[in-house]
Amino acid sequence: MRLRQLILRKFRNYENLELSFYSDLILFVSPNAHGKTNILESIFMSCTGRSHRTSKDREMIKWGEEEASIRTMVDKQLGASEIAISLHARDKKKVLINQNPVNRLGELMGHLNSVMFSPDDLKLIREGPAERRRFIDIELSQIRPRYFYYLQQYNRILSHRNNLLKSIQTKPSLAGTLPVWDNQLAEAGSYIIRQRKLFHDSLQTIAQEIHNQMTHGSEKLTLEYKSSIPFQTGSMDEIREQFLKVLEERRKEDIERGITGRGCHRDDLLFQINGADVKVFGSQGQKRTTVLSLKLSGLEYMFKETGEYPLLLLDDALSELDQDRQQMLMEYIGKVQTFITLTDVNQIPEQKRKNAQIFKIQSGTAQPMASISF
Ligand SMILES: Nc1ncnc2c1ncn2[C@@H]1O[C@H](COP(=O)(O)OP(=O)(O)O)[C@@H](O)[C@H]1O
Ligand SMILES: [Mg+2]
User: Fold this and answer.
1) What is the tens place of the pLDDT at every residue in 223-263?
2) Residues near ligand 1 with C-beta < 6 Å?
3) Which of 307, 328, 360 finishes a domain?
4) What is the pLDDT of residues 71-114, one digit of tens each?
């Protein structure tokens, strides 16, 4: 898929920005704090309906304004489409696809897909399991809207169940209604776990291959999907049964603590290099390489599942990587439409730059530059 046009109105520090893309390599160049990441953020919003760096839509509206909008024109194998998102200071965001209002955010999923890579992604290794679940959820939601629905549903049921657990503490007779919620949680949860397991299996193979290439065969990367619901075959039925069993076994403890202690909201993805946990034993370089392997395998996975590569969004990603890793990323340019933010255009080899569109970003404006002028 290709992004052909991006129009921002009152989005972050852009009053009015209209960009057309005809190349597969687009560079946004400026010193810091001029608005490069803001552009990638708007593209990411068009893919997922959410920002990659804030959960508050309001923050993306230009200061002092009430509304902002992002409009994109997308070319896919099946034809062109237009995605329009408007943000409102006092109202929910609105999404239109080909001018038709979308009632549920899930309907946006799959129209435009992307994989974002930024220095912040080291969080994926360093921080807790929530970051890693987020990675899985963003990947799967983009290619499988159904996954997104189940996830929303799961979170809703979970929050009801947790409220009920707390109420049971003071009113034990309410415990009779718990099985209803358990069933619903296990129903949505078993779908999610099964999809995560399948995703893990594919990703493992692809990431291993990419990591192997990047380290010239010296490192073997292994991914482990760690679910708090134990299962053997991984069929939906088996997972559902196991899910219910775990909920039953832990019922007393859950009531005491007023919280659901097991389920998809506790899943994790672990990384090992040559058998050692990357989070604990990995060097800074190994952590970066692991994240890159993961992101690039996410990209290949999307291709495998949808037949089209997503957009690759690289936010200040090059400066952090050594020559070999940079080389690996460069190989994707040409195969995948890639948007790169950087402070120095020379970070991109001249050979690649020849066909690039280069925009000089300056305090909320984007000036197209011929590659020669740098
Ligand atoms: N809602 C907003 N309204 C206006 N300006 C904003 C808003 N949010 C961020 N900015 C401005 O955007 C700039 C940062 O943009 P960013 O894309 O992160 O820069 P960089 O070029 O370093 O990637 C800062 O100057 C900041 O003040
Ligand atoms: Mg930035």
Assistant:
1) 999 999 999 999 999 999 999 999 999 999 999 999 999 99
2) 12-13, 30, 32-38, 59-63, 341
3) 307
4) 999 999 999 999 999 999 999 999 999 999 999 888 999 999 99
Q: Check residue 318 and report its DSSP letter.
A: S
Domains identified in the chain, total number: 2
CA of 14 to the centre of ligand 2 (A): 14
Domain that holds residue 293: 114-307
**Are residues 185 and 282 located together in one domain of the fold?**
yes
**Residue ID of nearest Cα to ligand 1 atom 11:** 13
Number of H helices, E strands in the chain: 11, 15
For residue 39, what is the domain's CATH number? 3.40.50.300
184 contacts 278 by C-beta, under 8 angstroms: no
Q: Tell me which residues have their CB within 5 A of the ion that is ligand 2.
A: 36-37
Query: Domain check: are 51 and 195 in the same one?
Result: no
Contact predicate 211/293, CB 8 Å = yes
In this structure, the strands spanning 100-101 and 91-97 are antiparallel
| C-alpha–C-alpha distance, residues 169 and 173, integer Å | 10
Give 373's pLDDT tier (boundaries 50, 70, 90).
very low
**Gap from CA of 84 to ligand 1 centroid (Å):** 21
pLDDT confidence of residue 371: 55
User: What Cα–Cα distance (Å) separates residue 163 from each residue in 66, 151, 181?
Assistant: 35, 18, 11
Same domain, 346 and 209: no
Show which of 307, 331, 356 is a domain's final residue. Answer: 307
Q: Minimum-distance ligand to the CA of 39?
A: 1
Confidence at residue 372, expressed as pLDDT on a 0 to 100 scale: 47
In this predicted model, what pLDDT tens digit does every residue of 42-51 receive, in sequence order?
Answer: 999 999 999 9
Tens digits of per-residue pLDDT, 11-21?
A: 999 999 999 99
The answer on 132 and 94 residing in a single domain is no
Q: Do 264 and 154 reside in the same domain of the chain?
A: yes
At 341 the three-state DSSP class reads strand
Ligand 1 centroid vs 40 CA: distance in angstroms?
12
**In whole angstroms, what is the distance from residue 229 CA to residue 156 CA?**
19
Decide: residue 258, CB within 10 A, 0-12 exposed, 13-18 middle, 19+ buried.
middle
